[in-house]
Amino acid sequence: MINSTTLLGRLTADPELRYTPAGVAVCTFALAVDRKFTNAQGERETDFFDIVVWRQLAESCANYLKKGQQAALEGYLQTRYYERDGRRVKVVEVVADNVQFLSAPGQAKSNSGGQEQGQGQRNRTTTGSRESRDPFVGEGKEITLADDDRPF
C-alpha cells in the first residue's frame, strides 16, 4: 500500500504551534495549492490542504514560516473523526514529515522579474535573532564534490 503526497503552495495564515499534554510539539497550517490546469473560464482553481507537523519540525515551521510564504512538503494523508453536535465529522489532513521553506520570512510573491523580493534578509545573521537560526543561511553557494565523493 502507498500513502504519499507532495505539495507545493503558499501558507494561508501563520502556523499555529501547540504542545500535547506529554510535551510533544504539533504545528498546523493550511497550504493553498494551485491546480495544474485551468477551468472553463481560463482560471486556475486552488485547493486548500490542512497540514500537521510534529516534534522539532513543528517548532521549525512555527519559527520560520509565515502567511504567504511558499513551502514544499512531503507526507501522507491521514483521516480522523470527531463528534460535534451529535454528528460524526470526518477530517482529512496531510501529516508532513519533510518541509522545505522556499521563501524567506517577510518575502512576498515573486515580482515580474522572477526574482524573489527580500533576498538580502535570508543571509543576515544577528545574534539571538530568528535569522541567526536560519538553516538556509548561505544557501545557493556552489558545492564542489570530488569524484570520490560521488556514489555513481
UniProtKB/TrEMBL annotation:
Q: Where is this region: Disordered?
A: 104-152
Q: Pfam families of this UniProt entry? A: SSB
Biased segments, Basic and acidic residues type: 130-152
Composition-biased stretches, type Low complexity, lie in 110-129
Q: Which keywords does this Swiss-Prot/TrEMBL entry list?
A: DNA-binding
Q: Which InterPro entries match?
A: NA-bd_OB-fold, Primosome_PriB/ssb, ssDNA-bd
Q: How far does the signal peptide extend, from start to end residue?
A: none
GO MF term (any one): DNA binding
Tell me the subunit arrangement. Answer: Homotetramer.
Q: What is the protein name given in its UniProt record?
A: Single-stranded DNA-binding protein
- Source species of the chain: Paenibacillus aestuarii
